[in-house]
Amino acid sequence: MIFEANLKILEKKFPMVWKARNAASVNRMSGIEIGVSKAGDPTLAININGKVTQVVSKYNPIDEAEQFINQLVDVDKYSNVLFYGYGMGYQVECFNQKYPNKSFSIFEPYPEIFYESLKHCSLKQSMINKLNHIYLEYTKDDLSNYLRHLVGSLEGELLLVVHPAYERLFSEMFQRFIQTYKVEISNKLENLRVNSAFEKRWIFNSLINLPVVIQTPNITVAMKERLRNKPVVLVAAGPSLDEEIENLRYIKENGLAYIISVGTAINGLLANDIFPDAACTYDPTDLNAKVFQVLVDKGITNLPLIFGTSTGFEVIQNYPGPKLHMLTSQDTISPFFLQEKQGKAIYKIADAGSVSIIALQLLKLLECNPVILVAQNFAFKKDRTYADSTLVIEDFTQLKPIKVESVTGEDVYTNEDWNRMRKQMEIITGDNKHLEVINTTSGGAKIANTEYISLKEVIQERLSGVVVEEGWYATNESSYDLTDLDVKMKRMALSCRTLLKNIDDIVEMLKKLERAIARRDLPKMNELFPKLDKDMNKVSKNDFFNILVLPMNRVKYEFFMKKIDEIRKELNVLIKAKLILTEFGDFLYRTQHDALVLQPIYKATFDSMGTR
């Protein structure tokens, strides 16, 4: 009866946990033993290799749980609580009784323990009401996925409450949990940092670059047939580049593979009179223009540039040579205006921490084979971070060094940023068994799913004939169907004017709400709430807002939406009104400001394409 009642509760609030209940019988944990404590409560022990160890007290598990919860300090300062290890749930229930206003989540590494507990201990409705998530780990992938979800939903600090028996009995599992949690927190902080730094530049760049995007080939559409199954040498700016100059010169002079430089490697190649077959860039900052200034200074006009559509507009406007583009995931503008031709799929390249990862994704889409990495160190080499002949844009030397495995199995020093990039690249190299990636980087960090072979050996054994076509990048065919372009541009202009009008209406309503708060006029506040919802709904459906303004404020918008959820749950009308005034006012100010800033930019962009 207890189990059936508990399952009904799960089915109602946590249907995915309820559906997965039968999978718990095929899992990692065996030897679960349920008994009765001297106090008369169900107790739990684990039989491991004939040795029985208690998970909860066999004397008085409730008293044990109360003592455990009583030792927690400063609970009120935490916005989020996660219980690692459910056991029989006594500690969770005691926590709920002591802190009835605190919501929490549960992570159980052994689902069979969780479901076994449900057969003997009833779920209290008061506890279920405050329970946000139940995470049950069935596979190693579940751990990363759950923690990514958990970390993504966090606002404020997390109190991690670890079942003392789990930390002792299942230490390996727990340490893996802690390490994965640290990685996900680090990734979230890095994403916040990147988004905060570049969210406005991505949109400005994508908008200003739009006329050039329309006039240039999309490389994923126009060049796939030409580059499929062709060997490509991807040259980065790592310190190993200086060792490979003559090998690269030989490849270039004999047309043995397409050479594509990424980032500042173009400077190292040109300094040694090696012209790659293309340069690839995606950095959104204005500093990126310095990387290609050498081409402008030397008057080089025949070197094609492959650029991401959200790349710094200064590079695209000033670049003297032919251009090809690729749509990037941070560009929300081009997909709205540009329609794919029938049978010509258009792909986006996912944003990443390194242009090498961007380029590798591109080469994978183009089905180039093999891809040969050169100077992709992701590590220090005799305290050097870049090749001597390249331009240093970012200084990585101040970051704390950590040890990783090198391409030859020895230790090599890297740092957290490079290591994060390396792991991102490993997602690409491990995602397609048909993509062969050869890493020729002497002294570099090992990249999983690649084979280390010296570049000299690759030339001797894998690059046997001429493959590079002169003028491979040239085409007269448009990559897009532009039939509706003019209509969409006019629609967007109208959408901007409508958005500004909607904001003005909401501002007037907020002024009324402010007066109602001053008078403590609760009926008026209740009258204004649904009207505000209706007008905010208009904003949320506006094209100009969704495609241009919102992506410029993605970090603030994420926090704003979390605040909105809190406001909806607030029952005190006066407090609710004050929260709305504060949160809506701040968000609308940012929205209005950015819409006004964008107006002249999009007008200039559309005028340059002959549209009013």
Characterization of the model:
The chain is α/β, with parallel strands linked by helices and 612 residues long. The chain folds into three domains: 168 residues, no CATH class; 272 residues, no CATH class; 124 residues. It is 50% helix and 14% strand. It has 25 helices and 20 strands. The protein has a nine-stranded parallel sheet with strand order 14-12-11-10-9-8-15-18-19. Strands 6-5-4-7 form a four-stranded parallel sheet. The chain has a three-stranded antiparallel sheet with strand order 1-2-3, with helices on one face. Helix 3 crosses helix 4, helix 7 crosses helix 9 and helix 18 runs parallel beside helix 19. The longest helix has 45 residues. It is flat and about 85 Å long.
Radius of gyration: 29 Å
Q: Helical residue percent?
A: 40-55%
Label the structural class.
alpha/beta
C-alpha termini separation: 71 Å
Strand content: 5-15%
Strands of the widest sheet, in order across it, are: 14-12-11-10-9-8-15-18-19
Mean pLDDT: 88
Main sheet record: 9 strands, parallel
